[in-house]
Design a protein that fits this description.
Blueprint: H1 2-30, H2 36-67, H3 77-119, E1 127-128, E2 134-135
Antiparallel strand pairs: 1-2
Length: 147
């Protein structure tokens, strides 16, 4: 029974860590100039935490079978209380994740709009390429004007 309580506690701790990461992601998505390195680090941390949660959940399921328990653990007040905390935290994380997803979708829409504007430029107009260097279209002629 002690192992099961530790497993539920481990799930709760990992969820709390995930909450901190999701809040950091929200903050990173709120800034005007987003730092892709920060967002990548956050994504890596989320993946790590999700792997840990998957591990703890497998342990939980194995312990449930061994102890013949079924969530929400009404037969054990301590386990039931831990489980309710996990459920509540999971609902909070779902809301945070959806909010972050909406911010990402808004950013993606802005980027797509910018791409559409750039792709509509006529071939004769000067644009900047991916390397930051100016590029000319097929009709661009270099003018040499001396005054």
């Amino acid at each position: 029974m002690e192992n099961f309580a530790q497993t539920l506690g481990g799930i709760q701790q990992e969820l709390l860590k995930l909450k901190v990461v999701l809040l950091a992601e929200y903050d990173a998505l709120q800034v005007i100039q987003r730092d892709p390195l920060v967002l990548q680090a956050i994504t890596d941390e989320k993946n790590s935490l999700l792997a840990a949660l998957n591990y703890y959940d497998k342990l939980r399921l194995d312990e449930e079978k061994r102890l013949r328990l079924i969530a929400p653990y009404a037969e054990n007040a301590d386990f039931g209380e831990l489980w309710q905390g996990i459920v509540q935290l999971t609902l909070e994380l779902k809301a945070l994740n959806m909010q972050n997803g909406e911010l990402m979708e808004q950013q993606m829409a802005i980027v797509n709009d910018i791409r559409k504007v750039i792709s509509r430029t006529s071939l004769g107009q000067m644009v900047y390429g991916e390397n930051g260097q100016s590029q000319a279209g097929a009709n661009f002629n270099r003018l040499n004007i001396n005054i």
